[in-house]
Design brief:
The chain is α+β, with helices and mostly antiparallel strands. It has three domains: 68 residues, Roll (Structural Genomics Hypothetical 15.5 Kd Protein In mrcA-pckA Intergenic Region, Chain A); 84 residues, Pseudouridine synthase (2-Layer Sandwich), CATH 3.30.2350.10; 160 residues, 2-Layer Sandwich (Pseudouridine synthase). Helix content is 19%, strand content 29%. The chain contains seven helices and 15 strands. Strands 5, 6, 7, 8, 9, 10, 11, 12, 13, 14 and 15 form an eleven-stranded mixed β-sheet that branches. Helix 1 packs across helix 2. It is globular, with a radius of gyration of 22 Å. The mean pLDDT is 88.
């Protein structure tokens, strides 16, 4: 595990007050470039008076104590790690597996080891024919760390190119099951918006306030309400406190389903970024621990269908809800 190599503490003087944060730090810490400092701040490595701060463009505050953690260098390439993988299909060109919640796909800040890529390097050792000239698995789509479900990865360059083309053409069948706070109205619909990175939180995405904005990336989610749970008080009959929703993607943007469902007033239960407000009515109804103990976004990649990029065979995989979402559904059925 990559540790912290160095910690630097600075207290802002009156002369520094009002300066842009990353510029001031670059002037004070001459061993790091401004771009490197900006990346460290956005990565959550800076604390201001003890609290994590992620905005490199903020103004320096006189008297504030700034503590920057500088991580130790990490290996240039991930190394194979033994891991129990739930493999649904595998041949010489690709592997389809069931990713559990809590497993990051790619190495990144906070997850430099123990990712799916590390596990695939070990599992596929000797059978990777090279992607881009490097012996590595070809990740053609991602699931968030705390999203469970079906994934496919390429083992050969030919498969990687073929799968990438199918995802780019939006010909891959992808269906997700989500549990949401509130129930969508209408029951079925299409959410088509731009998605941009939040200016307040660089790890968060949002829909621009201006519907005509062309900023960010175009995203389309089709949804269908599978079940409604409970009855919202003082609302029309059938207005649920929560819902089970199927979401089918036409595009694959980062956090797309989470952003779009929150945008229509139905954030995913358990979502720590877009749905942290669990709702007083749901919390009151939770006499057990199913909702309070559910600590991830209630999202599962249930269906993945595509053409085998080498043989042309039509492949389709379905995965039942994991046990934690099954327990959550039992709670919702009691509302």
């Amino acid at each position: 595990m990559t540790g912290i190599a160095e910690t630097t503490q600075l207290t802002a003087s009156s002369e520094a007050a009002g300066a842009r944060l990353d510029r001031w730090l670059a002037a004070e810490i001459d061993t790091l470039s401004r771009s490197r400092l900006k990346a460290l701040i956005e990565d959550g490595q800076l604390r201001v008076d003890g609290s994590v701060f992620t905005d490199p463009s903020a103004k320096v505050v006189e008297g504030a104590r700034y503590t920057l953690a500088i991580p130790a260098p990490r290996p240039a390439e991930p190394t194979p790690e033994r891991m129990d993988l739930d493999v649904l299909f595998e041949d010489g060109d690709l592997i389809v597996l069931l990713k559990p919640a809590g497993l990051a796909v790619h190495p990144a800040a906070g997850n430099w080891t123990g990712t799916l890529v590390h596990g695939l390097l070990h599992h596929c050792a000797g059978s990777l024919s090279g992607i881009g000239g490097v012996e590595r698995p070809g990740i053609v789509h991602r699931l968030d760390k705390d999203t469970s479900g079906v994934m496919v990865a390429a083992k050969s360059d030919t498969a990687h190119q073929g799968l990438t083309a199918q995802f780019a053409a939006h010909s891959v069948e992808r269906a997700y099951v989500a549990f949401t706070r509130n129930a969508p109205s209408p029951k079925a619909g299409r959410v088509e918006t731009q998605i941009v990175r939040s200016q307040q939180d660089r790890k968060k995405f949002t829909v621009p306030r201006d519907p005509a904005s062309e900023a960010g990336k175009h995203a389309i989610t089709n949804y269908l309400t599978l079940a409604r749970y409970g009855q919202a008080p003082d609302m029309a009959v059938g207005t649920g406190l929560a819902a089970k929703v199927e979401c089918r993607l036409e595009t694959g943007r980062t956090h797309q389903i989470r952003v779009h469902m929150a945008h229509i007033g139905c954030p995913l239960l358990g979502d720590p970024v877009y749905g942290h407000k669990r709702g007083n009515l749901l919390a009151t109804a939770d006499n057990g621990r199913e909702l309070k103990d559910f600590r991830r976004q209630a999202l599962h990649a249930a269906i993945l269908g595509f053409d085998h990029p080498v043989t042309g065979q039509q492949l389709r995989f379905e995965a039942d809800l994991p046990k934690d979402m099954q327990r959550l559904e039992k709670f919702l059925l009691r509302l």
